[in-house]
Each structure stands twice: as C-alpha cells, then as structure tokens.
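FW: tagging you since you asked about this chain on Friday. Here's the raw sequence from the shared folder, copied in full. Didn't touch anything.
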Amino acid sequence: MEESFIIQPTDCTPKISLDAQLGQLVIEGESFPENVREFYEPIVERVETYLKASDGLEVRFDLRYFNTSSSKTILDLLEMLEGFFDEGKKVQVVWLYKEGIEVMQENGEDFAYDLRIPFELKSY
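HL: got it, structure written out here
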C-alpha cells in the first residue's frame, strides 16, 4: 500500500498531503508551477498506486488560485478518479471555497458538471 506523504507548499505550488490511513488526499493553496507536468505527474502516479491497492479515496481541494495548466491537470486527476469510481472504488471529491469567492465556487461547479463521482461543494 502507498505510504502517506506531504509536499510542502511553495510560492507557486500547493501543499499536497495523502493520509493513507484516512484515505484522504488534500490539495490546498495556490497552483501555478512553472512546469505543471513536472510537479503533478509524480503525485498523480502515487495517487493511482494508492487507489489500486485501496478501497477508495476522498480528495479535498482547497485552492485559492490555479492557472489554466493546473486546471487541465486537475481535470486529468478527476477523470482518473472517475475511472476508479467506475471500477467500484469509493471515490469522493470535496471542493472547498471561501465564502464570497465566486470564481472558485464556479470552478468547482464546472469540474463537477461532467463527472459521475460524488462531488461536494462546501463554503467556509
């Protein structure tokens, strides 16, 4: 089984933590790395490895800002999660956004629109 891990945030990358015992991945902060693929590819691979060996995963997004390249990578991650959901894994997404920040709420709604996985929007 994949081990838990934490990637600390930088000025342009989010904090990412996978708690293997809780079955929870949290992505929080801002995401506009210079090379999105280089940053996210190993994370997506680890999440995929985790899901292959587990019953499921809750993914919590708490992003304050992300650029277009990050948006594409988030969509790729969500589509991968949907594939595991279709295979019977318990996959759930929680999209957190700060009350009054409509663009982040709308981004979450846009991601949720075409997905079949449970997707909850929560303000704070």
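FW: The chain has one domain: 5-123.
HL: agreed, and Strands lie at 5-7, 15-19, 24-31, 56-66, 90-97, 119-123.
FW: great, closing this out.
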